[in-house]
Structure formats: C-alpha cells, structure tokens
C-alpha cells in the first residue's frame, strides 16, 4: 500500500504486502476476496489473508492479565483490516472515528468485499506494532456510534495480494500514471508528513485533507462508494433487461424476459420507455430508438449515438448508399442540420424556461424579503409605539398629579396670604393700641411726677405752712410746675 501502488491499479497482478503461508505459528487465517477501483474504468481484484479472531475470544487468565498481548497472533504485523464499515460512513467520519490514532497511521486503503454491497473494508498500516495493538484493543468490537448497531471488527492482516485487473474502458493518463501529489493540498504524498488514505476508486489523499471532505464521493472522479439500490421489475422482480416508463416511472422487464414493459405500453399507451442499462429511449409505436444523445458508460458524459442507415439489411448499417455518394452526403447533412436546429431550439426553449423559472424564484425571494422587512419594521414600529404610548401615559399621569399639587398650592397660597394680611392688620392694631396706651401712661406718669415734686417742694419750703393754709403767693408754684414738667419730658426722652 505504498503511494505509487495506491494511486492507480497496476497493469499486472503485483503483491503489495509480503506473501506468506496460510498459517503461521499455529495461527488460523481466513481469506477474504476484495476489489477496488471504479467499475466503469478499471477494477482490481485481490485476496486478503486475515488472522482469525477466535484466538482473541478466549477467557482471560492470569497470564493474559499480566501480558495483554498473550492472546494476539504471535507473528502479527503493524497491519490490520477493519471489516464491515457501513456505506453511509464517509471517509471523514472514519477519520474522526479513529482520530486518536490518526498520527500513528501511515496508510489506509478502502476496498470492497465481494458479495457485500452495503459495507466496505479498510486496510490500515501503522508506524509501529505498539500502536497497532493499542488500536486493536481500543476499537475491536466497539460500536461506530451510540445510535448504530454496527460493530467495528478489527482483524490482524497476514498478507494482501492482487489476483488480477479488469479494464472496462481505456484508462486515462491520470489513472495510469503515478500521482505523487495530493489532489487537495497539492503537496507530496509523503508518509512522514501524515497518513495517506486511498479511496475505493484508487485515488490517494492525505488523511488530514480527506477528513475535511464530508461527501461520500471521491474529490477527483466523484465516484460514490454508496451505490444506489438496484432496480427490479415491478411484476416479476427480475433485475435484468429492465425498462422504465418515461411517463409514469413504471419499471418492467424487456421482451427477452417476461415482457412486462410491453404489457404496460399496451395497457396504458405509454409508448416511450428508457433502458436502464444503456440509457436509451425506445418508441413502441415507431419500434425504434428515438433519442439523439446517450450517456457514455466510460465517463458518464453525453455522446452522440452512432448513425445507422435505415436501408441496411444487416444489423451493422451497411447498405448500397456509399458514404461518398451525393445522396448519402446530402441526406446526412440535412439530418445533421435538422438535429442541430432541433437541438438549438430545444436548448433555447430550455434556457428560456430556466430563465423564467429562476426569475420567478428571484421574485419570490424578493417578495419574501420585502414581507419579512415590512413585518420586521411593523413589529419594531408597533413595539416602539407601545413604549412611547406607555411613556406618554406615565407623563400624563404625572402631569395630572403635578396639576393637582399646583392647584392645592395656589389655594394654600391664597389662604396664607389672607391670613398674613389679617395678622399684619392685627399687629398694626396692637401697635396702635400699645402706642396709645404708652402715651396715656406717659401723661399719667408726668402728672404723677409733677404731683410728687410739688409735694416734695412743699415739704422742703419753710413757707409750706402758708401754702397749706392758702396764703402763699402763686409765683413759686408755677416755677416748680415748670421744673417738674421739664423733668418729666427728660424722663420720657430717656425712656
């Protein structure tokens, strides 16, 4: 399984691994026939000699517990085969499944097992025996996933040899020459830089490159490892010489079997039927093929069907119309022109239909985008309007509250203004009353002081007896009155 041997099928049978006997050291081996390659181009067949797993199913004993490799084949090699990998598991899925050992893998090769259509096998070569034994103990009899019942069956490989090569078509230069470079990263297929994986169609890639390819087909030739299910006749269930009605899809066998496709035409008048093997269309009314192009079995491309003269007596198109005659040439040219014109019209119609179809899709997408934008804008506007309305209601409620407070404050202001005016008037009346009372008291005090001073003067004057008796002159009395009034005015000023 070197880079040169896996890039394309060998022209002659050549063993890839060292040949060995059927048994070695008492270990029992099993032979598994396999094949690889694209069946449309070239198919390589061989036989794998694998160690039987009966030796590993024995009960554990003390020696096996001390030495985990005691139940393994004695003359095993760093080469194993994973059997029964389901077809729906792609190359990337398997690389992810054994991702913990991918750095120890030197080479992997995908092969088909004869008689098994929904599974494939993988030959894996490791860099050392220890990694091989660890891979065997870790993945043998382990489920590929928790949702599947398929179990990974790992067997040690004794040897692999090719028994032959079958060419179904002319091999292209790309498949017959060595491919030293990875088609994905364009780097050399060197085992030191990373493991090499060879697909079922004999194309080699780096494991790190193919692990990013999530499709089950080959990145180079698009050959899919998961082949579609074989069709069978809807009546007798035969799988040979099948025809499918291009109108209703009924699958029936041809006239060389049970003739169910012809019976279907007679019952339904569906006159056009496609032969599944050659992809050619047959007209039951005209009793001939009516198509112009067929699909090549070599590369899958559409090619022109070989022209057969209608005047031919044998089945090879030979008649009296010589290729060099003018009638044959004119007839051939007219048919070619008619075919070209018909093809151009058909192509124009198909392109016009495709244009209308994609324009309608674009209009639908545009309308849908406009509706989504309108709905999004309407939703955003409605949500924003609701928020604004909520804020407005809140502000309105606050305004009403403030208006009530303002009205109450204005009323309180008027009440307090009236009270202040009343208090000021009361204070003014109290001040006036106090002033009047003070004036009265000052007058009374003055009169009292005058009286007191007069009495005191009378007591000190020697002529007081005369005054008492009423004989004294009135002059001194006036002077004393004046003096007392002056004292009273001074006291009032001081106060």
TrEMBL record:
<feature type="domain" description="RING-type">
    <location>
        <begin position="182"/>
        <end position="222"/>
    </location>
</feature>
<dbReference type="InterPro" id="IPR047243">
    <property type="entry name" value="RING-H2_BRAP2"/>
</dbReference>
<feature type="region of interest" description="Disordered">
    <location>
        <begin position="456"/>
        <end position="495"/>
    </location>
</feature>
<dbReference type="GO" id="GO:0016567">
    <property type="term" value="P:protein ubiquitination"/>
</dbReference>
<feature type="domain" description="UBP-type">
    <location>
        <begin position="216"/>
        <end position="309"/>
    </location>
</feature>
<dbReference type="InterPro" id="IPR001607">
    <property type="entry name" value="Znf_UBP"/>
</dbReference>
<dbReference type="Pfam" id="PF02148">
    <property type="entry name" value="zf-UBP"/>
</dbReference>
<feature type="region of interest" description="Disordered">
    <location>
        <begin position="52"/>
        <end position="71"/>
    </location>
</feature>
<dbReference type="Pfam" id="PF13639">
    <property type="entry name" value="zf-RING_2"/>
</dbReference>
<dbReference type="Pfam" id="PF07576">
    <property type="entry name" value="BRAP2"/>
</dbReference>
<keyword id="KW-0862">Zinc</keyword>
<dbReference type="GO" id="GO:0061630">
    <property type="term" value="F:ubiquitin protein ligase activity"/>
</dbReference>
<dbReference type="GO" id="GO:0008270">
    <property type="term" value="F:zinc ion binding"/>
</dbReference>
<dbReference type="GO" id="GO:0007265">
    <property type="term" value="P:Ras protein signal transduction"/>
</dbReference>
<dbReference type="InterPro" id="IPR001841">
    <property type="entry name" value="Znf_RING"/>
</dbReference>
<dbReference type="InterPro" id="IPR013083">
    <property type="entry name" value="Znf_RING/FYVE/PHD"/>
</dbReference>
<dbReference type="GO" id="GO:0005737">
    <property type="term" value="C:cytoplasm"/>
</dbReference>
<protein>
    <submittedName>
        <fullName>Zinc finger protein</fullName>
    </submittedName>
</protein>
<keyword id="KW-0863">Zinc-finger</keyword>
<keyword id="KW-0479">Metal-binding</keyword>
<feature type="compositionally biased region" description="Low complexity">
    <location>
        <begin position="58"/>
        <end position="71"/>
    </location>
</feature>
<dbReference type="InterPro" id="IPR011422">
    <property type="entry name" value="BRAP2/ETP1_RRM"/>
</dbReference>
<feature type="compositionally biased region" description="Basic residues">
    <location>
        <begin position="484"/>
        <end position="495"/>
    </location>
</feature>
């Amino acid at each position: 399984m070197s880079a040169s041997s896996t890039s394309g099928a060998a022209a002659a049978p050549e063993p890839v691994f060292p040949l060995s006997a059927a048994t070695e050291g008492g270990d029992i081996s099993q032979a598994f026939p396999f094949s690889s390659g694209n069946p449309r181009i070239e198919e390589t067949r061989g036989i794998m000699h694998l160690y039987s797993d009966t030796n590993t199913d024995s009960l554990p004993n003390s020696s096996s517990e001390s030495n985990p490799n005691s139940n393994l084949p004695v003359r095993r090699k760093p080469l194993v085969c994973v059997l029964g990998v389901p077809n729906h598991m792609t190359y990337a899925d398997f690389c992810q499944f054994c991702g913990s050992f991918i750095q120890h893998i030197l080479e992997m090769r995908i092969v088909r097992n004869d008689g098994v259509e929904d599974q494939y096998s993988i030959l894996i070569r490791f860099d050392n025996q220890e990694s091989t034994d660890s891979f065997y103990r870790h993945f043998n009899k382990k489920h590929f996933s928790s949702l599947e019942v398929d179990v990974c069956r790992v067997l040690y490989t004794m040897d692999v040899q090719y028994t032959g090569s079958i060419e179904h078509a002319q091999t292209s230069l790309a498949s017959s020459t060595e491919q030293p470079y990875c088609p994905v990263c364009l780097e050399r297929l060197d085992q030191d830089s990373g493991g090499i994986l060879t697909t079922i169609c004999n194309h080699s890639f780096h494991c790190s490159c193919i692990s990013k390819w999530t499709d089950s087909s080959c990145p180079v030739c698009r050959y899919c490892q998961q082949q579609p299910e074989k069709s069978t006749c809807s009546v007798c269930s035969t799988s040979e010489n099948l025809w499918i009605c291009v109108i209703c899809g009924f699958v029936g066998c041809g006239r060389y079997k049970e003739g169910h496709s012809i019976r279907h035409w007679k019952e339904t008048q569906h006159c056009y039927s496609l032969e599944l093997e050659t992809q050619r269309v047959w007209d039951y009314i005209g009793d001939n093929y009516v198509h112009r192009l067929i699909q090549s079995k070599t590369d899958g491309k559409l090619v022109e069907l070989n022209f057969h003269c209608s005047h031919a007596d044998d089945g090879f198109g030979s008649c009296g119309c010589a290729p060099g005659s003018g009638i044959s040439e004119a007839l051939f040219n007219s048919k070619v022109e008619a075919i070209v014109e018909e093809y151009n019209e058909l192509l124009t119609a198909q392109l016009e239909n495709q244009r209308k179809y994609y324009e309608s899709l674009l209009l639908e997408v545009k309308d849908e985008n406009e509706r989504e934008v309108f709905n999004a804008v309407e939703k955003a506007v409605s949500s924003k309007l609701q928020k604004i309305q909520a804020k407005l209601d809140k502000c309105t409620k606050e305004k009403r509250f403030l208006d009530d407070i303002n009205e109450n404050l204005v009323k309180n202001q008027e009440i307090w203004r009236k009270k202040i005016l009343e208090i000021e008037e009361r204070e003014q009346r109290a001040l006036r009353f106090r002033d009047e009372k003070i004036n009265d008291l000052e007058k009374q005090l003055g009169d009292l002081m005058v009286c007191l001073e007069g009495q005191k003067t009378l007591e000190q004057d020697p002529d007081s007896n005369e005054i008492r008796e009423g004989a004294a002159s009135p002059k001194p009395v006036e002077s004393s009155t004046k003096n007392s009034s002056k004292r009273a005015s001074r006291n009032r000023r001081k106060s």
